[in-house]
Amino acid sequence: MGKGRLEAFSDGVLAIIITIMVLELKVPHGSSWEVLAAQWPVFLSYVLSFVYVGIYWNNHHHFLHVAERINGKVLWANLHLLFWLSLMPVATGWMGENHFAGLPVAVYGGVLLMCALAWQPLQRSLITANGGCDSLLAQAVGADWKGWLAAAMYLLGILLAFVAPWISCFLYASVAAIWFIPDQRIESRIK
């Protein structure tokens, strides 16, 4: 089974997710700094989510670049990831509109956690479809400490959201910073 349709479909869904998020940004009514400043929570939540969608797109590209084969399990695992990513615009909008209140920040963290957990079956199914433990992809992924660290930080952020939502947002931004650089584990093995 070729991977071209999977890549094209995923790219399209991710582009739509970003489009929906940017459409939530409203044009400020007025020309003062105060009017613009009132929009900062919505804009800040958009920036964080844009970075996250970009990180998933980048890593998705790297994984599929290395993969030679896909199968039905990969297709379903990919849809599972795209489902959770498709919730990003709602969680982003809710968090921004409510100025980073506890429950919206926790829900945003929950979406991030589910995206991270959905990445794991996609990663495993791609490894299995491309030679298992001896494959280039398996060697590149290794123990995936970054993936498990991210999930732990999301969980901590969810729990802290009800006490200190800004600490939660700092944790979410920290995870994004960890993943912002393209995954060197894979890039170093691409010739």
TrEMBL record:
The keyword Transmembrane applies. Belongs to the TMEM175 family. It is a multi-pass membrane protein. One of its GO terms (molecular function) is potassium channel activity. GO terms for cellular component: membrane. Keywords: Ion channel, Ion transport, Membrane, Potassium, Potassium channel, Potassium transport, Transmembrane, Transmembrane helix, Transport. This is DUF1211 domain-containing protein. It holds the Pfam family TMEM175.
